[in-house]
Amino acid sequence: MPAIVDLPTLVQAALAVFGALLDTDPARRHFAEALTGLRVAETKTVRGSKREIVVTTDQSCLPRGLTEARWDVKARNDRRLEWRPRDPRTRYSPRGVIAMEQTLVEHAGKLIADVGWRWAHVAPRHVLAHDSLMSNSVGPSAKHAPIAWRRFNKREACQGGCKDHTALCLAWIDDAMIRAIPGDFTFDC
Description:
By secondary structure, this protein is of the alpha+beta class. Helices cover 35% and strands 22% of the residues.
């Protein structure tokens, strides 16, 4: 039985910060519903989110509203990184670290976007996988807070503007320095 009759305080705060980055009221509503569902729903799916909210739109509106909304990814991420230090749990710390990590997520199908044969140095063998690079700020409390994430395209799908892991990692280090995010950088090998 639906239990949420109003947006949680945290979601209202997020909407106040990020709502202006969305171009329509329905897009802002879908954003708020998605955050509410991720925060309170037992099952973190569209259906699970919709089950928790009393007054809601058709189930198909949420994913369509999020995927079809015009997002300025850079503006949204800049705003998120400015907002993070306000919460003591995700506040940057000079005693923390900025961890750079490459992750391969293996798949069985070949028709999945950006899946390709990648060298898994821990295996060691080639695997069919998504290849991602992540940057996280980890404070003394061991709470991870993402700074950046990028999934790599297959080389043949890349159209000139793609960076390799090393170039992207160096760009993220430069960005962290410009933003004055404190901490020591760590890398997996």
